[in-house]
Amino acid sequence: MIQVLCDGRLFHLQTKNTSYVFFANPVGRLEHIYYGARVEDPATMLMRHGRPAPASFCVMRKGEYSNMGPDVLPQEYAGFNSGDMRMAALIFKTEDGAAWTDARFVSAKVVTEKRALHGLPSSFVGTKDTDVANLEVTLLDEVGGVEVTLLYSVFADNDVISRSAIVKNVSDKIVRLERAMSAQVDFAGKNHYEMVNFYGSWARERYLDRTPLRHGIQATGSLRGATGHVHSPALILCEPGATETMGETFAFVLEYSGNHFEAAEVDQFDGVRVQIGIHPGLFSWKLNAGESFETPEMFMTRSGEGFGKMSRNLHDFMRSHLIRSPWNGKRRPILVNNWEATYFNFDTQKILDIAKMGAKLNIEMLVLDDGWFGHRDDDKSSLGDWFEFKKKIGDMKDLADGIHALGMKFGLWFEPEMISEDSELYRAHPEWVLCVPNRPRCYGRTQLILDFSRPEVVQHLYDVMAGMIGRAGIDYIKWDMNRNMSDVFSAALPPDQQGEVAHRYILGVYKLNEMLIEAFPNLLIEGCSGGGGRFDAGMMYYLPQIWCSDNTNAMDRLAIQAGTSLIYPVASMGAHVNAQHDVARFIPFETRGNVAMAGTFGYELDLTKLDEKEQETAIRLNKAYHRYHDTISEGDYYRLTDMFHENDVEAWSCAAKDKKQAVLTVVRRTKIGNIKRVPRFTVPGLDPAKHYCLVDDAVEAAKQQVFPGDVLMNYGLWCSELEFRDCASKVYLFEAID
Ligand code: DGJ
């Protein structure tokens, strides 16, 4: 719900459990008042609303109230070089060379339609929750001739508010945008809070840092051209001591897949300014008279019940209002991917052998990974040549028909944004790569990056990909991206627009996704960037699942998947059973399966090498997936162990929204002698008044154990099976019987 109070100057964005309040103050600055637990009458906040008293060093325009100096006010979207000395949300330069920004309130309106951004991911109303309200607030920098429209949408049922900004040049001269954040949120007096952000690397994605805020700016971001493995486009603030179930937490998540920036600044009055948006490094945008720039959307939530509720708000929001694939909410096919089985060393027969064994084990899709095109036998050639490597796989249509004849779907790997110098495409179009003239080029995995800021490049990729998908009848594609971006320069843009290349590139990536989705609405697309290097809410708008990490070791995956689940729904995480690569640590097949089951499930190994016992386990896992995967992917997710530490036992559970089923997974990471902590875990999200059967197919029906919901929720279950074995795991399935 949105309330506009106090003669149209006080704005109250109210969700089920939160209130977000801001005010157009008498000098037209958009002053942030409150973001916290829900209140009913925020107008009373203004009666005793205090502002820090500025010293003489605080500058402001002549005649403006002394206690409204911009440097001391919490604001909604701060200007630059006009009094607020903290991080600016908006910086632009006018033709006279001035970088001076000061946009003041003009008007606001509540609108019924949720605006969709052009060429960018935009959350939508959807069908599940209907209580979505929208507010558009217009600010104007009169001197620079720049209008800013701040867009707010309130998803009341999810406790989520989305935001973005549209910057329009309303002058008759050129304006150059240097920084345009998606959102800014200023909190008064939360300097004692902690900040949680993501860090990592290839094969070690989304580890968590939790540090107290300190005075000054604390920021993460990416200038890698994509989200990157190192930091994620999200930031969390939390009360000190906040846990999974207790304490105030706020999450800010950007729907963007390119260079991102997320920061918190603690100012001289202990205010905290949070900003999130496109990274201002490598960014500038030329706005001709009348032109607009739309920032990517971000969304934020506040939980008064710790990180667990915060994550569930975000998961619900993304599943209902962001992931638009028709596969969202549908059971995804269990897949087998040949990458770790064969790498580049395969032929049609090998792929069909894996598929045949897959069909026998009730696996539903074969994904042919890297190496099927051009003359690619290693990673040094052929990117861009998306036609069959005939010597290896013959005609793709024949192979696809062969897989389909087994009753399986067929998926194919592409790396659309890349080009090898040793390729027909490069020989035909050397000008299509990103590179700075007269500078040495940087290579990653021997490959270069196609200039996706050029529409003809995007169109070419569409033509060849759509041709292959249509001709062979491809059901799924894995969209990979295997290097960081450097040499950001487009031969197609003039010198004064080179700052636009990185963002235009991402718009090209989105455009190609859009074209493919339009042409093949049921195509299942899985995102990937050397594992989880482009795991972000922007990609999720186009595709429902992303390969979570190239690290398929089940023990290593525990931290990666827990960190990812902090923001993203588990149904979006590609997670596969791998072969026993780790010679030092034996991980039972069952455990590899149980860990992979906490995502979109599949296999990443040579199925033809499974022994009989492993085949039986695979059949059992596949059956289990069908029995409870709806609960895992669509239900409420609970982390039951502390994700900020590596625990000897890790546990999580999922409860169906209708409370008829719950799945508790427990994994023993390491065995220590005389363990301190009995592995007893509660099962949250049940109906306390119902009874639940602990389903175990190996136990005859009459002997199944039945527990009251309140006992499972409060006392829990002693997972005695796990006491003595390293890397042991167990999935406990509970089904309501009344
Ligand atoms: C990186 C991906 O993450 C892997 O799964 C695999 O597809 C390789 N690229 C292929 O080159």
How widely separated are the two ends?
Answer: 37 Å
Q: According to CATH, what is the class of the domain at 2-321?
A: Mainly Beta
Structural class: alpha+beta
Q: Please summarize the sheet with the most strands.
A: 10 strands, antiparallel
What is the second-level CATH architecture of the domain at 2-321?
Answer: Distorted Sandwich
**Relative helix content:** 10-25%
Shape annotation? globular
Uncertain stretches of 5 or more adjacent residues: none
Strand content: 25-35%
Rg value: 27 Å
Bound molecules: (2R,3S,4R,5S)-2-(hydroxymethyl)piperidine-3,4,5-triol
Whole-number average pLDDT?
95
Fold blueprint:
Blueprint: E1 2-5, E2 10-14, E3 18-24, E4 30-37, E5 90-94, E6 104-111, E7 132-141, E8 146-155, E9 160-169, E10 175-187, E11 194-201, E12 204-212, E13 216-221, E14 234-238, E15 249-254, E16 260-266, E17 272-278, E18 285-287, E19 292-294, E20 298-303, H1 306-321, E21 335-337, H2 339-342, H3 348-360, E22 365-368, H4 390-393, H5 396-405, E23 409-414, E24 418-420, H6 424-428, E25 447-449, H7 455-472, E26 476-479, H8 501-519, E27 524-527, H9 537-542, E28 545-547, H10 554-565, E29 573-578, H11 589-596, E30 600-604, H12 612-634, E31 636-639, E32 649-655, E33 661-668, E34 680-681, E35 691-695, E36 705-708, H13 709-714, E37 717-718, E38 729-736
Parallel strand pairs: 21-22, 21-30, 22-23, 23-26, 26-27, 27-28, 28-29, 29-30
Antiparallel strand pairs: 1-2, 2-3, 3-4, 5-10, 6-7, 7-8, 8-9, 9-19, 9-20, 10-17, 10-18, 11-12, 11-14, 13-16, 14-15, 15-20, 16-17, 24-25, 31-32, 32-33, 33-38, 34-37, 35-36, 35-38
Helix pairs in contact: 7-8, 10-11, 11-12
The protein binds (2R,3S,4R,5S)-2-(hydroxymethyl)piperidine-3,4,5-triol.
(2R,3S,4R,5S)-2-(hydroxymethyl)piperidine-3,4,5-triol binds at residues 339, 369-370, 413, 480, 482, 528, 530-531, 547, 550.
